[in-house]
Specification:
single chain, mainly alpha, about 300 residues
């Protein structure tokens, strides 16, 4: 069966799985009411975010409107940010980063590429972000790539490829191959790493470690890495439906709408807890130095 046919079948399963009308705002009415009443605001933000992620994905594969996609992903990403602020808890999962990348809103992306607090909270176990037998190791590499810490990213990626972790963490080996290629500006290496991720052999397993919403329609990691490469001027092209080529150029909308009142919140409100020192900062001179304490591996 061809890749195109397999993708079409997967999309059909996705539409069957998400049978609700993606544009029916009644599905988030209760969440918006919770926000107004001040109850479970963090959970309500997550529900709104999930709704707009689904809305963006489903509408794209039905109507192919790129502006609508970016607007929906903007709302999804900003809802997650506000949820984090309300909960006083940085995101631990990396699955939300894709929507920040794809919406092409620089303020949103700036916030996400700094939200590293969860990877610094060691719970008395040492610097987990430096342990090769930890998911935190490769999650931290995303932030290094997003902020352009090329020497450190290359060193960390090269080290873990030469010193493989236990089997539990080896599925992400291709991620380190991509990060090393990106750090070195190796265009062919980046392309080869992403082609490996979206290969029939690895696609399903790789998608299972990403966000569940788009797994029927796109390669989560392949799309994320391809978009990241484009942000640095590496215009990779893929003749593969699992990475929508139209999503990759970095072209912000002329303006982004905040269709719900809670979205008008300032996203640079600092955390008021043990993560306060890791709060994303609007002024780049105040950004955390990610290189400090992030080498050598342990």
């Amino acid at each position: 069966m061809s890749i195109i046919k397999k993708h079409e079948e997967s999309c059909s399963k996705g539409f069957a799985h998400y049978r609700a009308d993606p544009n029916d705002l009644s599905y988030i009415e209760s969440s918006l009411e919770f926000m107004q009443s001040g109850k479970n605001i963090g959970g309500a933000c997550a529900n709104v975010s999930d709704f707009y992620k689904s809305k963006g994905i489903l509408n794209w594969f039905k109507n192919k409107n790129l502006d609508v996609l970016k607007q929906d992903f903007y709302v999804a990403a900003k809802s997650e940010i506000i949820g984090s602020i309300v909960r006083n808890q940085p995101h631990y999962e990396s699955s939300h980063k894709l929507y920040a990348l794809l919406c092409d809103n620089e303020e949103i992306m700036s916030w996400y590429m700094q939200d590293v607090g969860a990877l610094y909270d060691s719970f008395g176990k040492g610097a987990q972000r430096n342990k090769i037998n930890s998911f935190d190791y490769y999650k931290f590499n995303f932030f290094l790539a997003a902020q352009g810490y090329w020497d450190l990213l290359a060193a960390r990626s090269k080290y873990i490829l030469e010193n493989p972790p236990i089997k539990k963490y080896q599925a992400e080996a291709t991620h380190h191959v991509f990060y090393l290629a990106l750090a070195k500006g190796n265009f062919a290496g980046m392309k080869a790493a992403i082609d490996d991720i979206i290969s029939p052999k690895k696609l399903h397993k790789q998608n299972m470690s990403g966000c569940p919403i788009p797994r029927f329609f796109i390669s989560y990691w392949g799309t994320l890495f391809a978009k990241l490469a484009w942000r640095y001027g590496y215009e990779l092209e893929f003749n593969n439906p699992w990475i929508p080529q139209e999503w990759l150029p970095v072209k912000p909308l002329e303006s982004y709408e905040n269709p719900h009142d809670f979205l008008k919140t300032d996203i640079y409100i600092p955390y008021i807890c043990e993560f306060a020192n890791y709060s994303p900062q609007k002024d780049k001179v105040n950004w955390l130095d990610l290189a400090e304490g992030s080498w050598p591996p342990i």
